[in-house]
């Protein structure tokens, strides 16, 4: 294939169209390169429900086995189930998924033993370089005896481990609607929820990588509409939506109204701090609500603010010994889960919190949702640097206004803040704003958008 691998080897993973940008022959090279870069004697591999996933996964396994590496295939799984296997078995891992991308895409999320992330600066650039070097001649066979490839089912163990981290024994009965979006939540939810006092109303649990009902991306409000309607029709206590590889979870309350991922971050942070005696560090990225650090401090914890992106969160988790981390994109990271992200564990925390008291979810989360946010607004721009400079010029030097450059540009006062950051892969600027009231947020949002859009 003549495709430039820089087009598909992204900052944190491999992702591209199959077979136009990559195929099983390239997956085999990635497997051999992964084996060499990790230096592992054994690895674990899993895959999602996309039509191309089993073949790509098997090819990757062949590439690693040729290098003398023993491969454990866990088959169909969610991304956080692969992280569980990597952590519990102490093995580097590879997950074949393109998360919420359309059906023609596929990708690989890779990690070292203990679910430690592999990104551009931690091995992914080397994997790409090796694969490029071997495209003509193939990967050299270093081992006299190839590695073995064996199958192992980890679903029950994964479910039991998650349930061991949250006390669900005494929750009241709850009715929960779950929209799996034809993704891997349809595979994991029935086992994880088994035996709990829940009436489960499943939506789109049939594994189908062509996504016949809606895109498996709950971050887009259009993909929550079916869940919201069903929660109201069923009179359910809440609704939960998972993305395609089921590592992110989104929550709607009993009215079908979306619950901010920042509110979920704050709620879980309070619970994790309580589990740890009211002490611990909580990581949050800079576009989560002001509510998050406020709640963390109120519950005795130490909030640490980071850039957006799982590699930054995981690095801070490891560096600070944090017990929990959350992002506004609905990724939730747990020290007890090898610092990796698991939407399923966050969902169990929500069920435990709701089922441990008598009020509705809307009242429960109100304590953690104190401000008015804009959500993320993307604007296509010709020159990101020029627009950012114009925003800086408009707000710099104002009394009681602070500016920082941790990730893009953040401007804050006592009553509002906004962040504008450039996309790394597209000609976009992403705006998030928050204020103490709707009118102020609307004005700040519109003022900044006017500058961004010229």
From TrEMBL:
One example of a Gene Ontology biological process annotation: carbohydrate metabolic process
Organism superkingdom: Bacteria
Protein's UniProt keywords contain Metal-binding: yes
CDD domains recorded: PMM_PGM (cd03089)
Record-level Gene Ontology MF annotations: intramolecular phosphotransferase activity; metal ion binding
This protein's UniProt keywords: Isomerase, Magnesium, Metal-binding, Phosphoprotein
Domain Alpha-D-phosphohexomutase alpha/beta/alpha intervals: 7-134, 157-256, 266-371
Domain spans labelled Alpha-D-phosphohexomutase C-terminal: 376-449
Entry's family note: Belongs to the phosphohexose mutase family.
Protein name: Phosphomannomutase/phosphoglucomutase
Organism placement in taxonomy: Bacteria, Bacillati, Actinomycetota, Actinomycetes, Kitasatosporales
Name of the gene encoding the protein in the UniProt record: manB
